[in-house]
Amino acid sequence: MLAIAVEQERLVWRECPTPEGPSAGEVRLRVAWTGVNRADLMQREGHYPPPPGASEILGLEVSGTVIETGTEVEHLRPGDRVCALLSGGGYAEEVIVDARQVMPLPEGFGLREAAALPEVFATAWLNLFMEGQLAPGERVLLHAGASGVGTAAIQLCRAFSHPCFVTVGSDAKLAACRELGADDGFNRHRGSFVEAVMAWGGADVILDPVGGSYLADNQRVLNSDGRLILIGLMGGRTAELDMGRMLMKRQRLIGSTLRAKSPAVKGVILDALLAHVWPRLISGELKPLIDRTWPIDEAEAAHTHVKQDANIGKVLLAVSGEG
Ligand SMILES: NC(=O)c1ccc[n+]([C@@H]2O[C@H](COP(=O)([O-])OP(=O)(O)OC[C@H]3O[C@@H](n4cnc5c(N)ncnc54)[C@H](OP(=O)(O)O)[C@@H]3O)[C@@H](O)[C@H]2O)c1
To answer: Looking at the keywords, is 4Fe-4S present (predicted)?
Structure first.
């Protein structure tokens, strides 16, 4: 099959070994579209190796068609149009995935839009509701509000009546976040977000992909009993923690990664999406925000766009490009 290989730091669409399988609980998909995630940029640079047993090929999510099922898979059939959360292997014509990580398309959705759903909605759901344990009316601070994850998280906050405040890198991104349902926001290039978030009312949960450079300010704006959910390290991996503030305000710091979770746990997260998010996608209350798409053999251009922080929402790659 054809797949993306990293050759001398370049992304090259070329012949690669077709993955073996499916084993009993897996399915083989013919890939239509795959999503670009920030993690793909880190993986190609050698900073984010795939978990043991996962494909070395980039790509954490796809949409496509089931072409083969393992002997124990009962709920999927060849010909089914689906989307899937992967631990790797999406930038390819075919991928093998555990059937628990496969979801039907929301009614009325095509394969293109469906490829923009798994990674960002699973990440946002996992961290806001499962790790963050949002209680009714609690307030959320979302950093990188216009990222793929951010645009899903804003919409989930709005749908479940949690006021949310975003930080972003431009005024155009701020306007896009407001349009999606953010209450208020702050352009991070204008200095510290502390004053603006405190004036807004502070945060009970912070979804933070930045890490080191934001830790002190995150602690300042996190309310008593607040949860700081760390999902990325774009601003560095070390910083000083104010344990006095942490203790007195009963703050909790939670590290969270979706990719390394087992298929069983991923299945639980995706079941929650099917129950709570899919109906809202079907009704139009939630929607994937697609920034731009490229053909898979132009993956390099798509990565450059994401690396330049130019996207608002998801960037997709067309593999077969079926709609
Ligand atoms: N732990 C997990 O399970 C998990 C799962 C999925 C994603 N993630 C993480 O979540 C984040 C978003 O992922 P994505 O694929 O949705 O990202 P994305 O669409 O590529 O967006 C990332 C955005 O982050 C902002 N940013 C970049 N460097 C920054 C810095 N140093 N400080 C503050 N903001 C910065 C930029 O937006 P502005 O111009 O607005 O600043 C950039 O466009 C990534 O860090 C990713 O690794 C974690």
So the answer is: no
